[in-house]
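Exercise 7.
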Amino acid sequence: MKNRFVPILALTGVLLAAAACSPAATSPTAAPTVPAASGSNSTTNTTVAPTTAASDASTPTSESLAAPAATSTTAPAAAASGDATGGIAQQAVADCTAVTDPNITMPANSNQQQFAAPQQVIDPSHTYCAIVTTEHGRFIIKLEPKNAPANVNNFVFLASKGFYDNQVFHRVISGFMAQTGDPTGSGSGGPGYDNIPLEASGPLKYDKPGVIGVARTNDPNSAGSQFFITFGAYPSLDNQYTIIGNVVSGMDVVSQIKIRDVDQDPNANSVVPEKLVSIRIVDIGAK
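Solution. The predicted structure, written as tokens, is:
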């Protein structure tokens, strides 16, 4: 499968170095440039990175668990509160910064699952929050289903199945972005499909740190499971890579993700990649 990546970008003909926060080389077609994902989930894309080369249910908020629906176009109906295997938690809080870790367990080896296609599990009118736990702590993403309904649904579906648990940040470029979502850790793995369409015509831009983009190959409609988190503004990625949300809490944790520049560092493969411990989804309703 092709690697999915976000290329380190070239501005006005000048190739920006990865250290200078430019997206990976010219096209994410080969190795994940920025968010290049190979196969069904690579970011082999064309973002321009230098071419060289996402506990306790004891919370003060009300919570119920919704199991992913098979084909519904609305959010899945809530199941009984309490422990559950997989699913989406529901909490009555004001915004994503107030969500707490839901008590959701996942089946063993959940990150090795393969699917034919994502089920429809979100209500695009609702706000979804992703709690991402890493080796250094947790950060929270506010997802934007109105901006990218198909891609956010795909992300939520995979996270609700435990697909992202115990994966790694396989491609991390200083000043540019951290890429993950590949169960093989090679940049070319995915969830079994790679046809989620590009949704990049909305108002959201790569104008700050903490933007969550979707990795793909050179085919705009080839997203799978890989995604990336920017370390700075990257306007060259605008309208090229789907944006599914942004970090609203814990950017200090994001900044601690271990650098592993597989694009330009010949010794990068000897660096043990940082683990993505888990991603849990919380539906906080229509806001």
